[in-house]
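Help wanted!
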Amino acid sequence: MAQGTLDARAGRPAAKLSTMQQVRRSLWPYLFIAPFFILFAIFGLFPYLYAFLLSFQEWDGISPSRWVGLENYSTLMSDAVWWKALYNSVWLLVVTSINLVIAFALAFILNSGLVRFKDIYRTAFFMPIVASSVAIALVFTTLFGLNYGLVNYVLGLVGLGPIDWLQDARWAKPAVALVVIWRYFGWNTVIYLAGLQSISTDLYEAARVDGARWRDIFFHITLPLMRPTITFTVILSIIGALQLFEEPLMLFGGTASTSPGGTDRSALTVLVYLYSTAFQYVEFGYAAAMSVALFLVIVVFSFLYYRFLGSASEA
Amino acid sequence: MGAQSDGWRMDRRKFLRSTATAAGGLGLASCAGWTTPGAKLGANDPNNPNIITVWFWDDSLQFAVDAFHKSQNKVKVYFQKIGFDDAHQKLLTSFAAGAGAPDVCSLEIGLIGGFTGRGGLVDLRKPPFDADQFKDDIVEYKWIQGSSADGRLVAMPWDIGPAGLWYRADLLGEAGFDTDPGKMAARIQKWDDWFQLAEDLKKKTGGKTALFADSFNDVLIPMIEQQGHGWFDGNKLMFVQKATEPLKAALRLHQQKLDANIQWWGAEWSTGLRRNAFAAMGIASWMQGGLTQDQPQTIGKWRVIPAPEGDFNWGGSFMAIPEQSTKKAAAWEFLKYVCCSVEGQNAIFKASGIFPAYKPAWKDPIYDAPVEFYGGQRTYRLYTEIAGGVPANVVHRSDRLASDIINNEITKVRNQNVDPAAAMQAAQAEALDRINGIVA
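Answered by r_m:
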């Protein structure tokens, strides 16, 4: 393969290597990529397989485990709390995907040269991701407070009534969505910005010479060329949104609420329910079944996106 | 393509230089993490049977550790401060993994059911521990809570949370009420007396100051805990029996706006306290420590009376020895000192207000002294009397799951005005469906 080409370029006929030399030559690439695969096998693959097997058992961590076959799955299918959590997670997926639109718009503005100090904005937008979860929890539970929260104060200034963000079941998911959108739009902005910057300006110049307007350029040059980047961010968003854990837990778990998910479990996400099941109710087998089910849901959503809206579909 | 965006072009030298610097920096950083600052014992030696690892979630244990080291030379303690959730979850995973458990672990009342009901902890009544020697000296309800259903003592009671009704003498005094604790206790003989006081206070202050922050906390919890902690009597689920009447009372008070509608345990509560939005609360002795630090302007203004119609306890921890420990003898020495000795229990009490479960410790004169925080009231003696009146149950292994189920229904009662009786029936049905091995 590559060896033959190299030798040909050097002007020498391709020498036949002995088997031993061939093996040694092809061994090095594998050795270089081995560390990743070893670590993945230990910390990624093994836990996945273990969890899969665990989903067919009943285990409390102390007593020996008991094989129960598909019982965990059948219990899961009739578990109203699971379906509520799944509904909440999908709701959050749909609503928090607004952050992709915001991120794209911001990236477009930053890239278009209309603003100066691009790097400062980029850093500022990215900060929420690096911020400590505890700090975010404290700040947002204070902001969303019914009596003394800043959000309600501002709403009051424009004549809107105070909202009980953390107690009212109708506003629990929007509260979580706001925190999530605030936290992750910067990540997507940075990615879109990188994508936009990789589009050659020659294309824009050629299009302008041909008389194209901004709208045409955007829809017929920028968007199509950004397809792979957008697919990337959407898939990541699907995975991330369906696995939302920190933000719902910050606002509606632990000491913030008497019951995980807040009033009527309105902000209970799949992962918070899974975590409670595993570590507080001590039902590891049932929690493992939930994780497998969630995996399947994510695969289905990703596949649906890819098939109907992603690179695989017609423009 | 023509001139691709030039971007940055790093030449090889710059690249190698920056990589080397990064690698060097990483190396230094990782070295720094290996030494623990501080004068405490830095690490445990697994081969030395006299150095034990102890897990607790608060710095206050250091007082007991220091006192223990002073009192004897043989056993040394390596105190690991572990976050509250981790102290229980990491313990659980160490049981599952078969390794990694400490020699002495701490467990809190809310999560103890999962451990008394499951295993992994040593039965302290057996030789060589023979914990029964302390049984009469320990508060009775705590002993039961630390025991399994079949009578093994798997967790030694450490501290208790004797609770009562706290009120602000300054705020109630301004509103024209007699704030002497003796007179107040005589006035509040039934819960209805307390609710009447709430109405009177609202009228007197024109709605500015409510009697308590949230009826679903300040009234509901005492009324439920008065019946003994936990939702089970053996295997019998007790949602409807224990919670229906308290819920009706809490909802009524909330709907009549006799509370300040402020959630507990958040920033709102602190702000509300500072703005005098509420004048009283139902809470346990350990609140003194937190308030002294966070709300020092209230020192001297609090008074406490026992809750009407029955005493209640809120909170409290236990210490236990995991079966995995190879240093059980040394662990027991420490556990005995901290939980079953007057010096150990009072060392922590005097430093942090953590209230002893070991009754002989209460003979110390400090318990009869006037307490500045409570404006001179001899509250510590009152707490010891309250501790004598609390009923107890063995905590069920599914206590946590049951709590989450009923709390969910309680949020619906509070925030969606669901009928309390219907809510408790729904909670009962859900729990019976979800939890194995329990009966109605």
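OP: Thanks! One thing I noticed: The CA atoms of residues 53 and 288 of chain A lie 8 Å apart.
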